[in-house]
Each structure stands twice: as C-alpha cells, then as structure tokens.
Amino acid sequence: MSLIETSSKMAPGLADAVFDSQRVFRLVLDAMARPGRSVALDLDLDPPAPLDPMTAAACLALVDFETPLWLDVQGAAADYLHFHCGCPMAARPGEAAFAVITDAAAMPELGAFSQGSDEAPETSATLLIQAQGLAEGEGLRLTGPGIENEVRIRIDGLPPGFWDRWADNHALFPRGVDALIVADGRVVGLPRTTRVED
Amino acid sequence: MYVAVKGGERAIANSHRLLDEARRGNPAVPELSLEQISEQLGLAVDRVMTEGSLYDRELAALAIKQARGDLIEAIFLLRAYRTTLPRLAVTEPIETSDMAVRRRISATFKDLPGGQVLGPTFDYTHRLLDFGLADTGGDAPEAEEGNPETLNGPVPRVLEILNHEGLIQREEKGEHREPSGDLTRESIAFPAERDVRLQNLARGDEGFLLAMGYSTQRGFGGNHPFAGEIRMGEVSVEIVPEELGFPIEIGEITVTECESINQFKGSAKEPPQFTRGYGLTFGHCERKAIAMALVDRALRCHELGEDATAPAQDEEFVLMHSDNVEASGFLQHLKLPHYVDFQGELVLIRNLRAEAEAKARAEEAEAKEKATADAAREAAE
Amino acid sequence: MSPLDILAAPDIEERRQWMGTLAKASPDRLDEFWQDLAEKPDYRCLKGPEIGLAMVRGRAGGTGAPFNMGEMSVTRCVVQIVDGQLGYACVAGRSQRHAELAAVFDALLQDDDRRAALKETIISSLDREWRNRRAKRSAKAASTKVEFFTMVRGD
C-alpha cells in the first residue's frame, strides 16, 4: 500500500500548521535552553501508538522535506510522521537528521547517529527519546550551559550504560547529538553541552 | 564597528511615508497594476525571477513595483521572500531538449533540423525610438501565425551534431538521484564543482556576467566562443512527491538556454576539440544566458588543463563577486553609521599629521642651524 | 521505510496524465468546472493547501549532470473525499484554490464510477484548451522561421 492510501485512516496533524508549529518550536527552544527542566504544552493531538503526543508535536514542528527522519518502529506511527512531515525516511540511524526512539531500552548506541563534523557540528542528529517516566528534583545531577548551578532529574526506562555513552557524547563537543527526552506528555532538553553525573 | 544610536524613529517612519508617496508619483497618473508590469515589462520580471532565484511572475512584478523599478532592490526583495517559504520538493531535471521553442537560433549552422526560429527578438530592430509607443490606447498588435506543425515536437539540439562526430566535449549525465550542491544550504567552498558554479552563475548579476564574458571575448582568457544554440520557450516541470513515489507534472516554466561552442587547441590533458559553456535562466534573459555560457566555459579551464591567467578564469574572483544581493548589501552598508570607526580614523590621522608636522619642523630647524653654521664657517674662511 | 509502491488508482500513467492536465489548467477554469459539477462531494483537506518552493534543476550543457538553477513557487494539497478516495495535487504558483480543486478532481477521477464522465468533460476540455494555447504559441513562433534561399549569381 502506498503512503497516501494508508493515510485515509490517518489521524490529523497540527490543527494550525503555522501557529501550533510556532508554539511547539518555542517550547522545544525553552527545553533546550534550560536543560533538565521539563516543559509541556496543551495540544489536541492524537497520533498513532506508540507515539507520545509530545514526540509527534515536536516532529510536526521540526521535521520536513530537508531533514531525513529515522524511527525505531514501522507501521502507522511511521506513516503518520512520513505523511504529515513530508520528510524522507532514513533507512539507517546514521542518515537521520532527527530520530524518534519509542523503545528507549532497545535504542541504538548514541554513536550510531550522525555526530556532525568539526566544521559543521550543527549537522548532528537530534534524538527524541520516549522514556518511561520523569521525576524532577531528584536523581542525576546536571550541569552546564543553561543551568545556573545544577538541576536534578530522574529519567526511567533508559538502557543500561546510557549515561556513560552520554559522557562520551558530551566529550565530543562541538560534535555530538542533542536529545529531547519525552515522558508523560512532558519534554526535557538534553543538549550535548550538558554534563550528567550520578 | 557599528554603534547603536537612538533617536531616528520618527525620521525613519516619515521616510517610509515619503518613500510611499515617491513610489506612487503623481496621483493624477493611473497606478500600475501587477498585471501591467508582468505583461508589459516582462523582461524586467524575467530578470528579477532569474537573479532573485524564484520563478513567480506575480511576486517578481510586485517586487518591481515596490522597488520603484530598481531591479537589484526587487531581486533583494524576492530573495528575502523566498527564505520564508518551506521547500516542498526538488524537481526532476528539466529537459530543455523537449522545450516547446518560441525562439531557437544557431550562429554555427545555417541549415539545421528544426530551422532558425527568430521569435520575439530585438536583434533585427533598428534601435530607433518608436514614438508611436508614446501614445497609449491604440489597437493591440497581433503577430502572424505560421504553421504550428513546423514546431511540433522536440527540436534537435545543435551541439548533438558535433557530438556525433566526436568533435566536442561530452557532457556526462551523472547520477541524477545524487543531490546536487546547493548554495542556499551550504556556502561555497573552493575549488567549486561545476554544479555549484552553474547555480552561482544562474543567480549571478547580469551586468557582472556580461562584463566577465566580454572580457574573455576581448582576450582576457580568450576562448573564441560561438553561439552554438540559443533557445527560449516552455519546459514542463516534474516532481516525485514523497507521498506518491512517481513523477507528476506540476506546470510549465519559460526558460532561456545558451550553449556556446569554443575553440580549443588542445592541452597536455585533452586533444584539440570544441569545448562548451552553458547558460540557463528563467524567463527570457538572453544576454544573461550567453554571458553565463562564456563565463562557465572560462571557469572550466582547470578541467581542460588550461592556465588560469585571466579574471574570468579565477573561480574565487568570479563566484565570490557575482551575487548582486551580497555585493549591494556590503556596498550599501557603508551608509550605516560608522561614527566610532571614523572617530578612530580621525584621531589616528590627527596624530600622524602632528607627528609629520613635528618631524618637518625639526628637520627645518636642523637645516637652518646647518645653514647658519655653514655661513659662519664660510665667513671665517 | 513506508512502501511507496503502486497506487490502487486505475493506472499510474493515466493518473499522471490527468494530474498534469489539472496542474496546467487555470484556477478560474477549474473553478468553473467545480461550480458546474452536479454531485459535489464533501471532502476534507488532510494537508494544506500550503504554499512552498520547489528547487528547479537543470542539466549542465542541457543534457549533462543536474544542477540547481533556482526555485519556483508551488502549492500542495492532499484531500480526502468523505468515505472515499484521496487526492493529491502540487501545482506551480501560489493559488491555493488551484491546488485544492486539482486534488479534489484527482480524488474523483480515481472513482471508477465517475472517471469516464469526468475525463470526457473536464480533462479532455482542459487538455484541448492547453493544446490550443500551445499550438497558437507555436504558430506565432513558426511565422518567424527563416526560409533561406540562395541568390543565383548571374555570369
């Protein structure tokens, strides 16, 4: 079946393509500017499982024809984003500008995604990782640009060894991926500049 | 260095209003419509679309109206507008071989398949002012109609004739699924590939390319060009939408194409043969297309093993200075306040002047002293 | 990757033809056909109509490797007939009405019950009108074709 056929049963995208995208963009900007602090937005969005509405909203605002997208699932969720974003779908994680990870426990290594180059660090991938849950004010200690002293956050459902890999990613600066962690309809920014310790 | 200076808001707002009034001119004269610009100043629209790098007649006409006929300003407006729109597709390469030609000439072969079709051209006009045009309201002139069958179907390409004989450089088709270099996404790096050079020239300033092309004709990197073929007409544009996966036609655009044939005596790398340059523009921009072909050919010196000795062969010189939006932006920024810069210069010049004057005075005093001493010695003798 | 294979539509070549015809039609003309349409279907826009750009590519030397020559404005729309087919349109220019109606007609033309009639009325008319416009253009150009003749030199 072609994409356009499957879309006959397709859930709608953002109600107002311009203004909703702007609101979501602003939200993601805030999340990235203040790492470790979760933000949320009221959005009437009902994407197919296993997409969190926040993940879907971020994709609809950020992903387009010029940014290949990689998803760890096929089927309705992939078709939904493919259709509404009008983006090319990356066959391998390394080819993606944006990646959606719905099953964090089974996610590829961070190094599998584009790290950018020293000349063009902005070409690295941005990962949208759906975690199991978030708790602020406890857990890991985050420091770095955008954080006055430190913030603490606990993120459930990430694979073992994730934070060691994150330390490697941080050390690559100016290269390295950026991440947006999504759980419970909220999103937390984790740019490559953020240092994370136990 | 630029310094924020406050206090000009009211003057600026009033300047905008004055500009609006000046744009409208005498209100007793009827206002121009976009249709009038598009229909009756069509070649201005074509130039603005080509160098504004956006094919949209209505927007180009609007830009010309807003810019009061300043075409470089209009090009700037169009370039600025295009940055606000998302890119939805990259088209399949247009096939100019399939063009529905309205003009097609060759300066290299008299009798050629498809014939010489003059189309609407200034070439055979006498460049005498036509005072008849000063009167408006006359009947619209109507062209003759010939046999449309004459131009039914694709017109063969002139350069293919030489290609069959193996006497001209071949154009390698390349893998068209590979993304071409795109100046709007990545800034230019040297040495530049031909796809990037052609994109740069296609949006480059007509006046600049004209001068560069002319310089090659006058001997600065001379490459003896012939207008192998010039064609203008409509081509179909196709895209392959992500949603469908097969190509569909989205419309037609008018383009002008020039293929130059250039003499080449051979080098250590290549045997003697004809070489080629290529020009392609939106709309009917013939002078630009020819100039572009000449400059494209000049810039191919490296691949042919020629010495790059002339300005038109200097890739960085040509490609970094061809864009009139960049050039005019940098030039016109000179109008911005440079008060502190200039204060620094002023202090510097005053100091240098003071030093120079002090030095001159000292030298003068020394010379006077020496003269007095010499006179005293002479008197003593 | 989502499969992007054959559509259920009649056949791709046939669909490509009518999509091209709809894209080249004038928005006003499409609107007239829409007004004249006896059974107007209810439909919703799944995407757009949205205005954007397509990067136009040329070929070096006209036949060689592709390069980006500049962009053109385009308008895209995807519609769904209620309880029915999906229609797609991407058309040159910035007329949202053009893209929307082209998408609606594309959807209706995929309906086996309506295709034949729509092709006969709308598509064939639009196609004929376009051919006439093109023939007129070509005829005027043809009148400027040079007929060389050789002067015979008298001895």
Which two protein chains have the largest interface (Cβ within 8 Å of the partner's Cβ), and how many residues from each? B-C, 88 and 56 residues
Q: Separation of termini of chain A?
A: 48 Å
Overall geometry of chain A comes to globular
List the secondary-structure elements of chain A in sequence, H or E.
HHEHEHEEEEHEEE
Structural class of chain B: alpha+beta
Name of the CATH homologous superfamily of chain A: Bacterial phosphonate metabolism protein PhnH
Structural class of chain A: alpha/beta
The number of helices of chain A is 5
Q: List the uncertain runs of chain B.
A: none
As a percent range, the share of helical residues of chain A equals 25-40%
CATH level 3 topology of chain A: Rossmann fold
How do the SSEs of chain B run, as a string of H and E? HHHEHHEEHHHEEEHHHH
Low-confidence stretches of chain A: none
Continuous helix count of chain B? 12
Question: What report would you give on this structure?
Answer:
- The complex is a heterotrimer of chains A (198), B (381) and C (155).
- Chain A has 198 residues and is an alpha/beta fold.
- Chain A has one domain (16-197): 3-Layer(aba) Sandwich (Rossmann fold).
- Helix content of chain A is 26%, strand content 23%.
- In chain B, 41% of the residues lie in helices and 14% in strands.
- By secondary structure, chain C is α+β, with helices and mostly antiparallel strands.
- Chain C has one domain (3-142).
- Helices cover 42% and strands 26% of the residues of chain C.
- Chain C has a three-stranded antiparallel sheet.
- In chain C, β2 (66-81) and β3 form a beta hairpin.
- In chain C, 48% of the residues are buried.
- Mean pLDDT of chain C is 90; it is low at 1-8.
- Classes of the chains: A alpha/beta (198), B alpha+beta (381), C alpha+beta (155).
- Chains in contact: A-B, A-C, B-C.
- Chains A and C meet through α1 and α4 of A and β1 of C.
Any chance you could write out the topology, listing elements then pairs?
The complex is a heterotrimer of chains A (198), B (381) and C (155).
Chain A (H helix, E strand, L loop, with lengths): L2 H4 L10 H17 L5 E2 L12 H10 L6 E3 L4 H10 L12 E4 L24 E5 L2 E11 L7 E6 L5 H10 L6 E6 L2 E5 L4 E3 L1
Parallel strand pairs in A: 2-3, 3-4, 4-7
Antiparallel strand pairs in A: 1-8, 5-6, 5-9, 7-8
Helix pairs in contact in A: 2-3
Chain B lengths: L8 H16 L9 H7 L1 H11 L1 E2 L1 H10 L4 H12 L4 E7 L6 E6 L52 H7 L29 H9 L3 H12 L7 E15 L8 E15 L12 E8 L3 H14 L15 H7 L2 H9 L6 H42 L1
Antiparallel strand pairs in B: 3-4, 4-5, 5-6
Helix pairs in contact in B: 2-3, 2-4, 3-4, 3-5, 4-5, 7-9, 8-9
Chain C lengths: L11 H13 L2 H10 L6 E17 L6 E16 L4 E7 L3 H14 L5 H28 L13
